[in-house]
């Protein structure tokens, strides 16, 4: 990982990670603990700090005495994404102000404000709340995780096809490497700005599908589904990638796949 982020604080911090059991969050928790911080794992099913961002339950107890909050919670369900990430951010920031938390780290997505999809609209609203929320903040924008690409391909392969729309530029990153950039931000002073972290290769959906099919030895047709309209234009224009990131991972998709256990047939 080549990061330009500087300004690491010294000493042990008390850090709460909302969504600390998720794809990204669990690596953030490991990384922060390895760096000597005291870390609390917050999620609905956390044994230690059960918290529900969609109701605010558990937040007061979970944030007492915290220096930093990392928000790595997520929902992709149309029914709950707004309650978790927009209303949830509002609740989280209210509780942080009451607890005197000094730094809110929001995990977001490269280009979310430039790609017209409901999930990205929610992420853009979440970012706006954070920037106006009265708690010193840092937003870490990551590109799509290798884990997301792999699970998206696995979801359609049973029907013997893989979505491989032409020209969709992506720059995916392993969640473990994105987590290092998030941990860097959490251990630094708030930068009141956005930090971008991307994967090592600028590639496209078709190349990722081809690599996944080869690595998993699954037979499936690559389906060049057309993506019309503004969404298609934004994806083909490379709005989900970044030319000038602050940090860049080193593990490409094929290398990441080679290190993963084979998926169940
Ligand atoms: N996936 C990607 O490719 C990608 C790329 C760039 C950025 N991001 C961003 O990275 C962040 C983490 O994404 P992820 O893919 O790691 O998410 P994930 O694997 O779906 O994990 C979601 C986490 O949020 C917790 N959670 C869900 N609803 C909650 C609620 N109401 N209250 C409290 N906790 C709740 C879950 O635990 P419980 O179920 O126990 O509550 C879990 O720990 C998100 O901000 C996402 O936008 C993701």
In short:
37% of the residues lie in helices and 18% in strands. It has 265 residues and is of the alpha/beta class. Bound molecules: NADP nicotinamide-adenine-dinucleotide phosphate.
Report on the architecture of this protein.
The radius of gyration is 18 Å and the shape is globular. The longest helix has 19 residues, at 81-99. Mean pLDDT is 95; it is low at 2-6. It is 37% helix and 18% strand. The strands form three sheets. Strands 1-13-10-7-6-5-2-3-4 form a nine-stranded mixed β-sheet, with helices on both faces. It has a two-stranded parallel ribbon with strand order 8-12. It has a two-stranded antiparallel ribbon with strand order 9-11. The chain has 265 residues and is an alpha/beta fold. The protein has helices at 25-34, 59-63, 81-99, 118-131, 146-157, 175-186, 205-216, 229-236, 253-259, and strands at 2-3, 14-18, 38-43, 49-50, 68-71, 103-109, 137-142, 161-163, 169-170, 194-198, 203-204, 221-223, 247-248. It has a single domain (2-258), classed as Rossmann fold. The protein contains nine helices and 13 strands. The site of NADP nicotinamide-adenine-dinucleotide phosphate has 26 residues, from strand 6.
């Amino acid at each position: 990982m080549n990061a330009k982020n500087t300004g690491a604080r010294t000493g042990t911090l008390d850090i709460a990670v909302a969504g600390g059991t998720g794809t990204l969050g669990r690596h953030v928790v490991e990384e922060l603990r390895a760096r000597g911080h005291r870390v609390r794992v917050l999620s609905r099913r956390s044994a230690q700090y059960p918290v529900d961002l969609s109701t605010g339950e558990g937040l007061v107890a979970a944030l007492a005495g915290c220096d930093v909050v990392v928000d790595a919670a997520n929902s992709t369900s149309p029914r709950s994404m707004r309650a978790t990430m927009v209303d949830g951010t509002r609740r989280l920031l209210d509780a942080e102000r009451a607890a005197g938390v000094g730094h809110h780290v929001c995990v977001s997505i490269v280009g979310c404000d430039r790609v017209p999809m409901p999930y990205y609209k929610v992420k853009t609203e979440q970012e706006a709340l954070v920037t106006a929320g009265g708690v010193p903040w840092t937003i870490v924008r990551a590109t799509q995780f290798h884990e997301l690409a792999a699970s998206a391909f696995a979801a359609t392969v049973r029907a013997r096809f893989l979505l491989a729309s032409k020209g969709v530029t992506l720059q995916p990153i392993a969640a473990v490497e994105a987590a290092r950039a998030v941990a860097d931000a959490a251990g630094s002073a708030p930068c009141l700005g956005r930090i971008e972290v991307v994967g090592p290769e600028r590639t496209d959906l078709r190349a990722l599908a081809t690599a996944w099919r080869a690595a998993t030895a699954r037979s499936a047709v690559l389906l060049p589904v057309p993506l019309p309209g503004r969404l298609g234009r934004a994806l083909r224009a490379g709005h989900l990638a970044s030319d000038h990131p602050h940090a860049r991972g080193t593990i490409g998709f094929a290398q990441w796949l080679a290190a993963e256990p084979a998926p169940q047939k």
